[in-house]
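Hey, I'm writing a tutorial for new members on how sequence and structure tokens pair up, and I'd like a real worked example in the thread rather than a made-up one. If someone can provide the structure for the chain below, I'll link this post from the tutorial.
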Amino acid sequence: MSEQARIGVAGLAVMGENLVMNMASKGFPVAVFNRTTSKTDAFLAGRAQGLPIQGSHQLEDFVASLQRPRRVMMMIRAGEVIDHFIDRLLELLEPGDIIIDGGNSNFQDTRRRLTRVEEHGLHYIGTGVSGGEEGALKGPSIMPGGSRDAWPHVEPVFMAIAARAGADEPCCGWLGPDGAGHFVKMVHNGIEYGDMQLICESYQIMKVLLGLDSEQIQPIFSAWNEGDLSSYLIEITADIFGYKDDDGNALVEAILDTAGQKGTGKWTVNAALDQGIPLSLISESVFARCLSALKDLRLQAAARLSGPSGPFSGDVEAMVESLGRALYGAKIISYTQGFSLLREASQEYGWNLDLGLIARLWRGGCIIRSAFLDHIAAAYLEQPDLENLLFGDYFTATINGAQGDLRRVVSTAAEGGIAIPCLASALAYFDGLRSGRLPANLLQAQRDYFGAHTYERIDQPRGTFFHTDWTGSGGDTTSNPYNT
């Protein structure tokens, strides 16, 4: 009889299969289950051969092959299928056993599922796993949260398979109760959307406005990867521009310009709206993907709508240098917004998130890993209650220094007719945040005029509300001064 497995993984798609290989390579016996049994058989006969991996065709046998407390990690598609799989597991598992969701589930679903699983005497962990195929195999960033009592039973496995950063520190750590892990992973993905769109806008400026081709753009990204912008996404972007198609031209130029998305970016934006956090840059990155998908409409518009034309007349090399600094400044704004959302949600849900820990977890293995995250970790180590990332000394100095380049790039792109929604929104956030007085006084006057929504006065204490009968015929009745 085979040795009982330390952990079981259900779902042998790309991420599940590679996580199993990672666990086995670290010496953990693993049990596997897949709804399509031929996938299990092919895996056992192929990559898993000779490793401490055993498979089952029946879920009952899979559960029976696990050490107690049983640890079942689901690596299956988010949605109702997870609820159905949990239903089956609840019939087979016993109090004290642990169910882990390692997919990209909505954090609200995780909160609901945890309550249900714990009512049956079991534990539930919702864990974000980032790094793609390579990360899953060689070391991902792992973001667990949920039933705290389950963590000691899972920690040795997760810590062993996680990526390493800094002084060989595992990119894994317990984040908090109920949906904390999946929320952090969701925000990670939202930041990823922003990073990718900022890079794409920089490419569009270089290609369309500055007239550079892929062979000229590739070394620029390579150089950027040696400095402040050093990151996985910049690194792979340089590789992409160097990859040739069968005709000898850059493959990237043969790819249709319509982007896909799986929903985590939209979830991040929705969460920001719920929390009242101005997540403008990441929101624009989501809408940019939506606009890109409207290819036929854009082709019609291109034939009807006019814009600026003519070559760039300035110093190309100087503009590329400004673009690099502007990109870094916009990246700071994006992460500022993302960490503001984490901070607000932590307070709302009572998670007590360690923002410095989150930055450290993202330094290795995940898609947004970068040298830049060391600065974020250091800022929160120095000031754990930092209200806004831009208030950290490093970020204050850096964004103040980069704002001139950001303005130059945004204005030049606008004059050249280049769409740069994320770069432009970064500048708008910066200018809005540093404005001691915004035109919302007029907005409140408008709301009070048409809806008697009331307003506060600058010469009266906060929380005291007033209404004006602007037309002389509106009366004294007012709407309650609530915010959603």
